[in-house]
């Protein structure tokens, strides 16, 4: 089992509490990754 980063876990849990779905979180992260690679 991989060890989870506490800050990363808190970020995901906060997004879930805000009502975001896992798919919405995934889409946001993919978009951010693509944008950063383009810079």
From TrEMBL:
<dbReference type="InterPro" id="IPR010981">
    <property type="entry name" value="SinR/SinI_dimer_dom"/>
</dbReference>
<keyword id="KW-0238">DNA-binding</keyword>
<dbReference type="GO" id="GO:0003677">
    <property type="term" value="F:DNA binding"/>
</dbReference>
<feature type="domain" description="Sin">
    <location>
        <begin position="1"/>
        <end position="33"/>
    </location>
</feature>
<dbReference type="GO" id="GO:0006355">
    <property type="term" value="P:regulation of DNA-templated transcription"/>
</dbReference>
<protein>
    <submittedName>
        <fullName>DNA-binding anti-repressor SinI</fullName>
    </submittedName>
</protein>
<dbReference type="Pfam" id="PF08671">
    <property type="entry name" value="SinI"/>
</dbReference>
<dbReference type="InterPro" id="IPR036281">
    <property type="entry name" value="SinR/SinI_dimer_dom_sf"/>
</dbReference>
<dbReference type="GO" id="GO:0046983">
    <property type="term" value="F:protein dimerization activity"/>
</dbReference>
């Amino acid at each position: 089992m991989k060890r989870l980063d506490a800050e990363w876990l808190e970020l995901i849990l906060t997004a879930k509490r805000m009502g975001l779905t896992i798919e919405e979180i995934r889409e946001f992260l993919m978009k951010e990754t693509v944008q950063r690679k383009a810079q």
